[in-house]
Known about the structure:
The protein is an all-alpha fold.
Amino acid sequence: xxxxxxxxxxxxxxxxxxxxxxxxxxAGKAGLSRLTIRSLLGQAQDSRLSSxxxxxxxxxxxxxxxxxxxDTLPEHSIQSxxxxxxxxxxxxxxxxLMNFVDxxxxxxxxxxxxxxxxxxxxxxxxxxxRSTVYFLSREIGIEPPLWSxxxxxxxxxxxxxxxxxxxxxxxxxSPLAFRQNNxxxxxxxxxxx
Length: 193
């Protein structure tokens, strides 16, 4: 039998204090009962997701549901990938990014894409990472993280395969997720043998 464990990391109590709301005023603004607000503050396991959503909206925040896998290797998160590329040099993006792609497709663990890569990466590599995460999110039918939706259009087109012969086919085959950042890849770019 599969056991589902929910971890709630929404800082309701902290936001309540920061925004200066009482339980009563938040309940009124969120359209919830004060008892419901109290159960949310107590992290009750039987709280409805819709109640959390109304409370978050009233506090000018949002919530998201994140899937996790017990088998995920955390060193393959996008943030870790970025730090590894910085450590090993820009040319190492191929191995680190493709290891991330394999891990993400294997486990569908959305924690891997929550945080953006480090800002110290070159614009080119950041754009490639954003495009990859955007593409993979759409591939599995989830809303891409906000940071991956922000375009990072390169000044000059980047043909990931430097072969002149392949450039015309990359122009035709490159998915929108990559083209929107002026990056051109083959249709099988994210596939491994």
